[in-house]
UniProtKB/TrEMBL annotation:
GO cellular component annotations of the record: ATP-binding cassette (ABC) transporter complex; periplasmic space
CDD domains listed in its UniProt record: PBP2_NikA_DppA_OppA_like_6
Protein's organism: Nonomuraea longispora
Protein name: ABC transporter substrate-binding protein
Transmembrane segments: none
Length: 494
């Protein structure tokens, strides 16, 4: 074996307390404290194996469902249900040593049989396009109850990282009969209640294998309106705004005796999607014109009060192969008109009814109009209608969505994905990056991001900021949001 992956859990905020030490299981009962956190996008159901979108793993991953590994706040891969792992010299065999005495919330023990079941199920039962990330897995085998062995078809730089996402979630062999309504996991929380259209309550798992969470319950409260969410915090209806939806309103929370404002980064790229599969955006020159027509700094200042960052690609600065590509298409309306060759277009911009998308769409519409592209904005209820009409059916010309899944540039390699982008060279670069050395991976992914930008496969409006506001005394909030989960395991009240 050439490497042993093992970290000591000492201070990674996203790692929190859930992975500290070997499960103490029987520590003293947590103080009866609850917390209410405001969110925007409510899950359509609770099954992230068959339903796209970020809302379900945001609520359940790490909190209810755990994987063998997870990301810490610095983006490092650290142990969770696996206390360590070994990688063979040829980089094709991963041997995971599992923690002892872990049980699912149903009482069923967690063993290597569940690892085999969960990873095999990604291929057989998952409905999401991202399941292709685990196509590199050749077989998963149980060596004994606490040892699982994963053999890959070829070396893969992305495999272990993919295991930190929802793809690596561990399921009970007897707990998947009603995933949409009854999640069964090994995590520090269990589903307490779900009031559709209003809230999800997570209760502390009394049989949790690790350090008990400080809170007895957490309520995820959903708001369709940014003002209503702000008012709920101001009046004591909630304790935390998970992601500020009206950055210009932050002045309301300027009193340091009452509130704390946390500002960090995410890996969420706010993408102006262009339907490469149909006119007019099947024409590269039209897509390039769109990129030149948008003043990204003005858009960020207007739509999101200057919060966030400009990136110019599908790679956030938290990834090792990030390059600033904002100079690829500088704001140049004259160049945009030249690329359009005097032609004008009427297009349909179908966006989710989420604040960042609505605000950004108004700016995009205004700027495109200056070069001869008239965009009709149609907000769609999110997630259901947007996922159905835009994501699944591809019935759109332009859209705007925050792609929050980590290291997700590979979605452009799938022609059937809603972008409709097709460039075999791009897919070849991703495949080469995955099987190469670390340096080759970085070089290939930089080249892939450059190609994607040159092709104007989409436009990247800005990098979504992590803006959290909380009542004074709430601790354990993540400065950066770089995984699919909003990790509640370290949250506490003073």
């Amino acid at each position: 074996m050439r490497r042993i992956g093992i970290w000591i859990a000492v201070g990674g905020l996203l790692l929190g307390t859930a992975a500290c030490g070997g499960g103490d299981g029987g520590g003293s009962a947590p103080k009866a404290q609850s917390l209410s956190v405001g969110f925007v996008a409510e899950p359509a159901n609770l099954d992230f194996t068959s339903t796209e979108g970020a809302a379900i793993p945001q609520a359940l991953l790490v909190n209810v469902y755990e994987g063998l590994v997870k990301l810490d706040q610095e983006g490092r891969i650290v142990p969770l249900l696996a206390e360590k792992w070994e990688i063979s010299d040829d980089r094709k065999t991963y041997t995971f040593t599992l923690r002892d005495n872990v049980t699912f919330s149903s009482g069923a023990p967690f063993t290597a049989d569940d690892v085999v079941f969960s990873l095999d199920r990604v291929k057989s039962d998952w409905k999401l396009k991202i399941k292709s990330q685990l196509d590199v897995v050749d077989k998963v085998e149980k060596k004994d109850d606490t040892t699982a062995v994963v053999t890959l078809k070829q070396p893969s730089n992305g495999f272990l990282y993919s295991m930190t996402t929802r793809l690596g979630a561990m399921f009970s062999r007897t707990g998947v009969s009603d995933l949409a309504n009854k999640p069964v996991g090994t995590g520090p929380y269990v589903l307490g209640s779900w009031r559709r259209g209003d809230s999800v309550q997570l209760d502390a798992n009394p049989s949790y294998w690790g350090t008990k969470p400080p809170l007895s319950s957490i309520t995820l409260k959903y708001f369709k309106d940014a003002t209503a969410m702000n008012n709920a915090l101001l009046t004591g209806g909630i304790d935390v705004i998970s992601s500020v939806q009206a950055p210009e309103s932050l002045q309301q929370f300027a009193d340091p005796n009452r509130f704390e404002v946390i500002e960090g980064t995410t890996n969420g790229e706010v993408v102006l999607s262009m339907n490469n599969a149909r006119p007019p955006f099947d024409d590269k020159k039209v897509r390039q014109a769109v990129r030149h027509a948008i003043d990204h700094k003005a858009l960020l200042d207007t739509a999101w009060a200057g919060r966030g960052g400009l990136i110019g690609s599908m790679v956030p600065p938290t990834d090792p192969w990030y390059e600033d590509r904002t100079g690829d298409y500088p704001y140049d309306p004259a160049k945009a008109k030249q690329l359009l060759g005097g032609r004008t277009y009427n297009v349909k911009m179908r966006i989710p009814n989420l604040p960042y998308a609505v605000s950004s769409a108004q700016v995009v519409k205004s700027q495109l109009a200056q070069v001869g592209i008239t965009a009709e904005i149609e907000p769609l209820e999110f997630p259901a209608r947007w996922l159905d009409q835009v994501f699944t059916k591809g019935d759109y010309d332009l859209s705007i969505i925050n792609h929050v899944e980590p290291r997700d540039m590979g979605i452009f390699a799938d022609e059937s994905y809603y972008f409709g982008y097709n460039n075999p060279e791009f897919g070849e670069l991703l495949a080469s990056a995955d099987r190469g050395t670390e340096q080759e991976q970085s070089d290939d992914l930089k080249q892939a991001a450059k190609l994607l930008s040159e092709d104007a496969a989409a436009d990247w409006l800005f990098l979504f900021p992590n803006l959290i506001v909380a009542k004074k005394g709430v601790t354990g909030l993540p400065k950066n949001a770089i995984s699919e989960s909003f990790d509640f395991t370290a949250l506490a009240k003073q």
